[in-house]
Amino acid sequence: MSCLRFSTIACSSMYWRWMNDVSPEFSSGCCRTMKMKELRMTNKLPACQAVLFDLDGTLLDTVPLIVESFQYVLQTFDGHPGDEDMIRSTIGTPLESFFSGDPPQLIKEKIAAYMDFNHDRLTSHIGLFTGVIPMLEALRQRNIPLGIVTSKLMISATRSMAVFDLAPWFKTVIAKESTERHKPEADPVLAAMRDLGADDPSRVIFVGDSLHDLYSGQNAGCLTAMVGWTAMPQDELKAAGPDLWLETPDQLIAFVDAMTPRTKPEDQGVG
After folding, report:
1. Which of 81, 149, 164, 199 has its CA 20 to 30 A from that of 190?
2. What confidence score (pLDDT) does residue 44 get?
3. Is 148 exposed, middle or buried (0-12, 13-18, 19+ CB in 10 A)?
4. Spatial contact of 244 and 256, defined as CB atoms under 8 Å apart
5. Distance separating alpha carbons of residues 42 and 237, to the nearest angstrom
6. DSSP structure class, residue 144
7. Set 21, 54, 83, 267: catalytic member
8. Residue 102 known to be catalytic
9. Residue 271, pLDDT score
10. CA Rg, the chain, in Å?
11. What is the pLDDT at residue 267?
12. Domains in the chain, please, with CATH?
């Protein structure tokens, strides 16, 4: 399997749909290169309180393996591989949801078979999307806390992240066990915000690749960014109204840099 390769920045009419409200440096839906704000030597703090990421299909190229894992389970237990489009539409929700029509014991057996098949192929069948590490490093340089919000079981999430040593970049990982309700509900996004000390959802960006991610971020009141390298139907995602459409990871950095910095409380003349 080969990982997705990105071209240089290509701006679309939908790209930066929110930017004209934030920065005069963006016009006509097109992006101009911006330099990093010199925040370390000023009394300013990053306007962005946190950036949250979905894992599968957003940072990691795992969707083909996920589809293959589901098809293996369906073929083994039900005698058919299932419809690929249907399988893709469920990615981003807990495994139990996919098998919810089966008896409890059979659900457990199917999940165990899925986990075994998936884990055995983890190191050879997944990839890291190009540009992800430079993007994470740029966000870390700006002192913006990062979190993962996934519907995977925690053990699956940590295994996937370990393949590319992603754990050091993130201060929290919200997985299936972390909340009672899951995407598309707001609960996992709000849990990640609490862990990161982010109290203003309008200053939090949730980056994902599916409608489940988009609705979860919207329900939490966050800014939502959808990735152009998604394996999901792009027309459906765009029609759902994300705040930002990313063709490449570095476009997220330009968006963050364009957000107005907040002033430290002691510098606001209060007291």
Report:
1. 164
2. 55
3. buried
4. no
5. 39
6. -
7. 54
8. no
9. 42
10. 19
11. 52
12. 19-30+39-61+127-261 (3.40.50.1000), 63-125 (1.10.150)
